[in-house]
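Model: You mentioned two targets. I'll fold them one after the other.
Researcher: Yes, keep them separate.
Model: Target one:
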Amino acid sequence: MSSLPPAALLLFLAPLAALAAAFFIMRPWKPQWTHVPILISCGVVTAAAAYLAAMVYTGRGADVTLYTWMFAGKWSVPFGVRIDGIGVSVLCMVALVGALIQLYSVGYMKGDPGFSRFIMLLHLFYLSMIGLLVSNNYVQFYLFWELVGACSYFLIGFWSHKEAARKAAMQAFLTLRLADFGLMLAVLLIIVQFRDTHFALFHAVRFFPSMYHPLIGLLILWAAAGKSALFPLYFWLPDAMEGPTPVSALMHAATMVTAGIFLLVRSWPLISAVPGLPGLIAVVGAVTAIFAAVLAFTQTDLKRILAYSTVSHLGLMAFAVGLGQITAAVFHLVTHGFFKATLFLCAGNIAHASGKSAVSVSEVGGLWRRMPLTFAAFAIAAFSLAGIWPCAGFFSKDAILDAAFERGGWAWAAGLAIAAASAAYIFRMLFLTFFGPRPEQSPARSLHEAPPVMAVPVAFLALGALAVGWAREDLVAMLFCGRQSAVAAPSLPELAPKVAAAGLGLAALAAGVVFALTMGAPSWDWHWRRRRPGLAAAFAGDLGWRRVVAGFVARTLRVADVVGRVWDHETWDAAIEKTATACRALSRGGSAMASGGLSESLWWLMIGAAALLAWAGLR
């Protein structure tokens, strides 16, 4: 690999300088200008990411150790940067989408008393994700992985005056800690097995089979399931919608939740060497995608619909990884970042115009007349999510469907079910939100289009959701440039007419059915809830899974209470207190035996000396 280009250093230096300027200069003197150095940093990072992408596209990569920052005997951990096809393709999406979301947040959070703190936390989150993407070893990766999780806690609970936000932040924090513990164990086992944590070490993993490999692979899957909200650890993500909408867009579309999928891709050489593990990942991904899509179809809050949609598409990416289509998974990760960020920011436009942090389908309807730009951007992103040609999502979803078709059997059936379900819930949201209004909807008449600082980022993201799919060949070329990649990425399959026709046909069929339900019978979405309250409650409780999680948490708390009250207080504390009592009794006994007389002291010395001589003779 070549030496590290200066552009790679800007990925770290620009955000660090911006955060320092914002905290020490802008925040004390001009808090309303705190965003200025932050946005300059976003521009520098995006330009640097574009330069690095061009460099990798021409066949040049970099894997450079900047310095060694941890020593333990002969083992050390370097701090380095790896620029390769896998990392830089996701980096470009994160840099651009993250920059546009931070620009959007300037308008969305205007007037909030905590604006300075919010924009700095958002940029620290941005820096953490960039550091994760360009790390070249697992210990450094874990450092940024944890920093991303810590930032998410503060951002989800940013509006701490809301009890729901505090609970959501704590739930996310504890769930992510459970997943992070799995990654920590995996990294420790990698150190034990390989005495190294560099990503390149997995090139030779097939030639050195070990009893640790299956356990490491399962722990990595567990960590990815928590971070990327895969079943069974998905439940924290929908509740995290209590944070401001820019947080939802950045965290749940382009950055943190994709970190688990990125971890699976980085670790693919090890995962593929463990028999049965790719199949398990495919099953987990398929179950997550279908389950979350069904739940998304039944939600009423706009942001929660999109949250379950995110869970579903993360499952689709994991499904692609399990099928061995690493390139398709990365491609869909990139396209998803654009269309899902667009959808979240459109929901943010509606909430901002309503003067609320969240809006349900009962509070909207017929918005296409009052918010035409938001409607156009949402429609483009919805078509992309549903996999409709010529939008970006069509190309990435088609590649995954083609891999499922090649596998056949249950995989092909699951792929078709995911395609139909995705189209169903997003078109339901589109029709209910922008058409009508229906008798049950009472939209505010004062709703208006977003200001330019919010509208411009949405427009650019919608353009990406429309056009980025046409760069599929360039993305493949970047992933294969090639020698620098730590993962041998398979090429995307050619567009198969029968697969594309099946996907488009199911999406069109689902859209037609939803149109008949929401437009032909305008009150249907409210009617079935009134007639089937038990069914509505079941969907609200994630078909019983939330009850399972609540029961598990309650039992865990009871065990913790028993350990804390019985073991710690009644057993351990009692033992400590009895030890002190015994020491006092022993000291009193010793004091009673010690008269202070010289003759008695000499007798004790003689007895001790005789005992020592006897012990020496026995040896």
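Model: Target two:
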Amino acid sequence: MLSKTILRKTSGFLIAMMIVSMLVPVLASAAMTFKGTFSSNGTVSGQVYFDGAVGDAVYNQTDVTLSVYGKNGEYIKDVTVSYATYTNGTSYYNIPSNTVINSVYDAVYFQHSDGSVTDVVYRAPVTPPTGCTYCGGGGGGGGGSWPSGSTINSSNGTVSANELKNALSSYTEVTIKVTGDMVSIPVSALLNAKEGAVLIIVTDNGTYFLPLAAFDFEELAKSVESNVADLKLNVGVKKLTGDDAEAVTKAITAVGGKALANAADFSISIEGTNGKKADIDSFDRYVKRKLPVTTEKTKTATVALYNKDTKSLSFVPSIVSSTEAEFWRTGNSVYTVIELNKSFSDIASHWGKADIELLAGKLIVDGVTDTTFEPDRNITRAEFAALVVRSLGLSPVTSKAYFNDVTSNAWYTGVVNAAAKAGIVDGYEDGTFRPNAQITREELAAMVVRSFEYAGGKVEVDASAQAQILSKWSDANKIIWGQLEVAKAIKAGFINGMTDTTLETNGKATRAQTAAMVKRFLTEVKFID
């Protein structure tokens, strides 16, 4: 039902649009140009120019700051700049050298020194950050106005097709601010949107970032026996109440956790003119969402999915701040934010203690019992498949059989199939998976690298680099098939040698070693904080 284009969450250090905030109401029609450079670690240098009469009014002001935003509208930071002129009289504001802009998680847009622009360079934020002004308005105390077409208000649960269509003709991201917990969006307004267009559905209960490329409207129309132009896309972010909310509370209590947010049900359905509806429960990519945090965390925290059928909680890739949780998943469900402190009696003096406790507190690893972890016990291929599926927030797959020795009634069937579907695990030439075989360090390295790449991470290793990396290890010749994957795992810092000169890739991996590797790759792709 959904588009097969794969676009996963990307983590990068790209510079966002820079917007001047100062005590002059003259920016309503300012044409701003940034000329400079940015590096992969977020370091920025360059100058900001304003054109024409507006520029003349702006220059010579003191105490000027640039307010930096990500493409998704998130306020990042303020940068103090200095007024300067070239010998030819051209004025500009200079950004201090080695200025570092924090990482942002969405693609952003940038004008290079040659004048070329990667794409549009501005989209209005979801809400103006306190103390920052854009497009006029009084000084640093707030106010101002956002470009009129980029934000649409929905007070009655619907959106004007013409208003939305016009907004998408000018902006790659359009925010719909919803009064209530549901909005019905006319698909006819989405059909000619710019490539890469995203709808941001903002409610009091949470925010949904919907890339339009994730929807195959032709297939969706068939599912409800309707024409594409007549479809409605229903998006809901509903706060749970009553017995539903109590069920989530009980699940949190059962794992020894503490709720930091209200539980909310994120849902999407397609509706035809005949009233027929079809739920959209999954995507072919990670889709970003946000939940407001009601209680500030004091220890490790995570977004958790609540499964209504099993009445249990599971990990969702997420970053939790004092005010909100940002998370990514390929499906819809009920989500909340929890805080959990979990340890085990047999890891008190173990080298993997910190990693194990971190992942346990995020519902990624389980103990062998409630009080023991057995960190040095070897782990099976099925057990690691389960760990990978949990760490990526994937749903079990039971609709297809991938291996002839993974039976339909085994505890690991759904997770092994999910890992196979994601391209993370492979079988053997005879069609088996060998779920109960102990995993080797070579297999572990390969699966961690594939998990990292599935989550949007990148590590480049060509033939020359591979040879150079492996040459440092005296037993590299014992790698059977995974030379490239092992080299990538070493370069990315996911795997360490067992000694200064040996990898022991043919050795069996332990529960502590797998926890350490999973923690490293999740941290690298910013799926945990």
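Researcher: Noted. Anything on target two?
Model: The chain has three domains: 1-132, 151-339, 345-524.
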